[in-house]
């Protein structure tokens, strides 16, 4: 299959983070020097409080000022007005109306912790204003949501109400189903995984190393090239890299080139065997086991190719994939798919149910999988206040238009391992990652006893 990777810059299978920002960290202003005078702090706190109250009105759709009067130009350049409106609607839809500002505190004049009481949760994060820009908001980040009178039943109803299909599971591992899950919703329903499929690649590699076939420090030459997300698509051809480096890049920043290099090293048949060995209930849905490059191609081929691919058996599908050329794939169509957040043929993907992923996670619990667990922990995918509730946090998420998956491997203080996994597919429209992230945080806050 031939087509030029550097001409497509759309982000495929992005790794989902866990914070719910109105502005990403990249949009935040650098800290400014603050006065140490209590009197000055009290005088300067008033604009900060005023902006916090405007955030309440914004969440409720009641802001009586244009956003350009509330946020700095740099903030709005990073987070357009439409995105702010969408996130505000998601927050109020998830947690009800914003009621009051519980915080900011008075310790800092221009930057402070922020807590807003909503009908169903306390939203906690941070806020900052820029006096050089009329005390407009330069930072706004909600990191955690502490549920008020929440329950598994309410969360399950919220998941079921989302368009498309959702699934979820939060359960202690290693009990062979003997322990009742803290939370379960369509736990046996397979959905497309997006980049979370890379957990199967990591497991295949870890199993191969455990069998003595490979070593984490084995060096290979970079020969594959996919598309972002990632960095290694821009690395030199033939660059020497260890298997551990490839695996770390694959999991921590969802590097697609690193993934495809590992797929090439391990072999499609070995990866497909791991689907079966790990307990995937319907492995045929993920066979042939696609590379990320092939997934991109399948978002740019004509409809009749998709129709013929669906009708073909596994061998026929492999032949079709091998025969793809640059002329068969519309890079403009790929760009349009990702730029417009319009789902492609998301039935051609990698698939697992929450119960399948729980069986897969049991393979990472073994003592021999220590390196794989360390790789999964590089990007924990949770804000610090939530991650601090666990002794260990490993994470892999994934998304493409119409697909989101968030999966955590967790270890409590007693040494027991847990899985928390959440999926959402909608073949008709893009799906909102922040919505699923907030639901995940609500589930993780449920009592585990």
Describe this structure in words.
This protein is α+β, with helices and mostly antiparallel strands. The chain has 16 helices and 14 strands. The chain has helices at 38-59, 73-78, 81-95, 152-161, 198-210, 243-252, 256-266, 268-277, 292-298, 303-311, 314-323, 331-339, 354-365, 370-376, 384-387, 433-444, and strands spanning 20-21, 98-103, 111-118, 121-130, 136-147, 165-172, 183-185, 191-192, 219-221, 240-242, 351-352, 392-400, 403-411, 417-425. The strands form 4 sheets. A 5-stranded antiparallel β-sheet has the order 1-5-4-3-2. Strands 7-6-14-13-12 form a 5-stranded antiparallel β-sheet, sandwiched between helices. Strand 12 and strand 13 (403-411) form a beta hairpin. The protein is globular, with a radius of gyration of 23 Å.
Strand proportion: 15-25%
Order of helices and strands: EHHHEEEEHEEEHEEHHHHHHHEHHHEEEH
C-alpha termini separation: 52 Å
| Count of discrete alpha- or pi-helical segments spanning 4 or more residues | 16
Strand order of the largest sheet: 1-5-4-3-2
Q: What Rg is obtained from the alpha carbons, in whole angstroms?
A: 23 Å
Q: Percent of residues in helical segments?
A: 25-40%
Low-confidence parts lasting 5 or more residues at pLDDT below 50?
A: 1-45
User: Overall 3D geometry?
Assistant: globular
Main sheet specs: 5 strands, antiparallel
Mean pLDDT: 87
Question: How does the helix and strand content classify structurally?
Answer: alpha+beta
Number of strands: 14
């Amino acid at each position: 299959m031939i087509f030029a990777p550097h001409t497509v810059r759309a982000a495929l299978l992005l790794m989902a983070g866990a914070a719910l920002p109105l502005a990403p960290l990249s949009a935040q202003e650098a800290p400014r020097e603050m006065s140490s005078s209590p009197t000055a702090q009290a005088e300067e706190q008033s604009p900060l409080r005023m902006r916090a109250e405007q955030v309440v009105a914004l969440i409720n759709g009641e802001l009586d000022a244009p956003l350009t009067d509330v946020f700095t130009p740099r903030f709005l350049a990073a987070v357009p007005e439409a995105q702010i409106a969408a996130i505000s609607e998601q927050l109020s839809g998830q947690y009800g109306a914003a009621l009051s500002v519980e915080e900011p505190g008075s310790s800092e004049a221009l930057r402070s912790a922020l807590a807003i009481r909503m009908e169903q949760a306390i939203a906690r994060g941070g806020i900052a204003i820029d006096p050089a820009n009329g005390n407009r908001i330069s930072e706004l980040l909600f990191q955690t949501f502490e549920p008020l009178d929440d329950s598994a039943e309410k969360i399950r109803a919220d998941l079921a109400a989302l368009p498309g299909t959702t699934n979820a599971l939060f359960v202690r591992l290693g009990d062979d189903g003997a322990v009742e899950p803290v939370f379960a919703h369509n736990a046996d329903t397979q959905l497309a995984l997006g980049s979370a499929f890379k957990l199967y690649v990591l497991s295949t590699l870890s199993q191969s190393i455990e069998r003595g076939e490979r070593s984490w420090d084995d060096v290979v030459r970079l020969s594959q090239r996919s598309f972002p997300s990632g960095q290694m698509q821009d690395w030199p051809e033939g660059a020497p890299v260890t298997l551990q480096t490839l695996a770390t890049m694959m999991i921590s920043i969802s590097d697609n080139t690193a993934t495809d290099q590992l797929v090439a090293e391990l072999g499609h048949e070995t990866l497909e065997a791991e689907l079966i060995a790990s307990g995937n209930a319907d492995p045929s849905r993920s066979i042939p086991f696609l590379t990320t490059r092939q997934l991109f191609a399948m978002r740019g081929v004509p409809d009749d190719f998709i129709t013929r691919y669906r009708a073909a058996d596994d061998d026929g599908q492999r032949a079709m994939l091998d025969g793809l050329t640059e002329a068969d794939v519309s890079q403009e169509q790929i760009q349009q798919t990702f730029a417009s957040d319009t789902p492609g043929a998301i039935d051609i993907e990698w698939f697992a149910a929450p119960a399948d992923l729980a069986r897969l996670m049991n393979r990472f619990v073994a003592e021999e999988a220590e390196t794989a667990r360390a790789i999964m922990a590089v990007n924990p995918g949770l804000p610090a206040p939530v991650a601090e509730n666990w002794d260990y946090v490993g994470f892999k998420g994934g998304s493409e238009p119409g697909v989101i998956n968030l999966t955590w491997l967790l270890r409590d203080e007693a040494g027991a391992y847990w899985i928390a996994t959440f999926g959402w597919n909608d073949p008709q429209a893009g799906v909102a990652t922040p919505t699923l992230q907030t639901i995940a945080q609500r589930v993780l806050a449920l009592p585990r006893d």
